[in-house]
Automatic annotation (TrEMBL):
This is 4-hydroxy-tetrahydrodipicolinate synthase. Belongs to the DapA family. The active site is at Y138 (proton donor/acceptor), K166 (schiff-base intermediate with substrate). Its EC number is 4.3.3.7. HAMAP family: DapA (MF_00418). It comes from Alienimonas californiensis.
Length: 295
């Protein structure tokens, strides 16, 4: 069936928020956006998990989205992270992102309060009713504490402005159920599972590894969608160890920021309660970067 949200297919990069001496490094943020444009990336997602949104002040959150929208305008999509465990706050952030020129909102499931399935539905429906910006649901129960069940996601898909889902459950049955039961565009939220999710009906990814290897991830997605699964599998096999290192050595974005610092793309700073990558793990990250050919 034709899918809503196909304009968000392909690679969207979950942008880091660069910090320098504790403040947002706006110059580095702008240069990161420019580099992604040069790499042919389809979209950017500022202020998600990778962007350390829980530690951004409200002013910083809105400023980062505004800077990315301004820098990216007319060059690639911006899917701005506007989720909250407060429905009123999610509405406020989404309206702010729309004023800044975002193309869509990436909206994480309410965390900590652990809503019922009806609560999830009413939360997203309230934001959809208050804002006319396209919404990409973000389901990551390992971070939020509770899964948005496939039936609830398929019910939400009936709302006009809910167009896609970032699928980060690690469960291919869940992705399959959404693909069969809805017309949402499905985007992988786990880099190592992007190819498997494509194989059950996905259309792209919101990627962590895309901060350092966006062109390679785009090539894998494009190969699969162009009908060349053998090439896609070959690219997946090369990407897999790097993706596992970036997402498996420590909490995201700790390994990613360490890798970006090593590659001269960022300062590597994270904000408390995150701390820098443990020294004992750095050789493993170094080896993953070398094995991939980045060093």
């Amino acid at each position: 069936m034709p899918r809503k949200g196909e304009q968000f297919a392909g690679l969207t990069v979950a942008l880091v928020t660069p910090f320098r001496d504790g403040a947002v490094d706006e110059g580095r943020l702008k240069s990161n956006v420019d580099w992604q444009v040069e790499q042919g990336t389809a979209g950017l997602a500022p202020c998600g998990t990778t962007g350390e949104s829980p530690t951004l002040s409200h002013a910083e959150h809105e400023r980062v989205i505004d800077l990315v929208c301004t820098r990216a305008a007319g060059r690639l999509n911006v899917v701005a992270g506007t989720g909250s465990n407060s429905t009123a706050e999610a509405v406020r952030l989404t309206k702010s992102a729309q004023r800044s020129g975002a193309d869509a909102a990436l909206m994480v499931a309410p965390y900590y309060n652990k809503p019922t399935q009806e609560g999830f539905y009413q939360h997203f429906a309230a934001v959809a009713d208050a804002c006319d910006l396209p919404i990409v649901l973000y389901n990551i129960p390992g971070r939020t504490g509770k899964n948005i069940e496939p039936d609830t996601i398929c019910r939400l898909a009936e709302l006009t402005t809910i167009v896609a889902v970032k699928e980060s459950t690690g469960d291919l049955d869940q992705a399959s159920a959404i693909a069969v039961g809805s017309d949402l565009t499905i985007l992988s939220g786990d880099d190592s599972l992007t190819l498997p999710i494509l194989s059950v009906g996905g259309s792209g990814a919101v990627s962590v590894a895309g901060n350092i290897v966006p062109a390679e991830l785009t090539a894998m997605i494009d190969a699969y969608r162009a009908g060349d699964p053998a090439e896609a599998l070959q690219r997946h096999a090369k990407l897999f160890p790097l993706c596992r290192a970036l997402l498996g050595l420590s909490s995201n974005p700790i390994p990613l920021k360490a890798a970006m610092a090593r590659l001269g793309k960022d300062t590597g700073e994270v904000r408390l309660p995150l701390v820098e990558l443990d020294a004992a793990l750095k050789p493993r990250l170094e080896q993953a970067l070398k094995d991939y050919g980045l060093l």
